[in-house]
Design brief:
Helix content is 37%, strand content 17%. By secondary structure, the protein is an alpha+beta fold. The protein has a single domain, classed as 2-Layer Sandwich (Ribosomal Protein S5, domain 2), CATH 3.30.230. The protein has a four-stranded mixed sheet, with helices on both faces. β3, α2 and β4 form a beta-alpha-beta unit. It is globular, with a radius of gyration of 15 Å. It is an enzyme of class 3 (hydrolase).
Length: 132
């Protein structure tokens, strides 16, 4: 089996990285328990940032469990396009078991790739509208 590392270059580390995504959101993938915000980057690979508040996940153990699962499912997505992605947790996340969280995240990554393909194939909505 091929090793799939998760180096620092695949993480959003600085506040400026996060603010760039928040200020220039081009893709949103909503889910009952997560919200994904993404913007293209020029690095050629995806980077992920995590935001889970105490309001939605009361205990540190809960926050850490969800963060580990997000990082692991992200790491197992080698075909993600060059995007900076922020994963936000919503209420009710603490009530899900590990398999439900993993299934939800895999669905979210699939939907993110699909949305990215749609926007990449139709870069300016005004120019290509009549050709389809």
């Amino acid at each position: 089996m091929k090793a799939l590392p998760f180096p620092k270059s695949h993480r959003l580390l600085k506040p400026s990285d996060y603010s760039r995504v928040f200020d220039g959101v081009t893709l949103k993938v909503p889910h009952r328990n997560f919200l994904i915000l993404a913007t293209p980057n020029t690095l050629g690979h995806a980077r992920v940032g995590l935001i889970f508040s105490k309001k939605n996940l009361r205990l540190a153990v809960q926050r850490n469990r969800i963060k580990r699962q997000v990082r692991e499912t992200f790491r197992l997505q080698p075909d993600l396009p060059g995007l900076d992605v922020i994963v936000l947790g919503r209420q009710g996340l603490d009530k899900l078991d590990n398999s439900s969280v993993s299934d939800a995240l895999n669905d979210i990554w699939r939907r993110l790739k699909k949305k990215h393909r749609q926007t990449a194939s139709n870069p300016s909505s005004g120019d290509l509208r009549g050709t389809e």
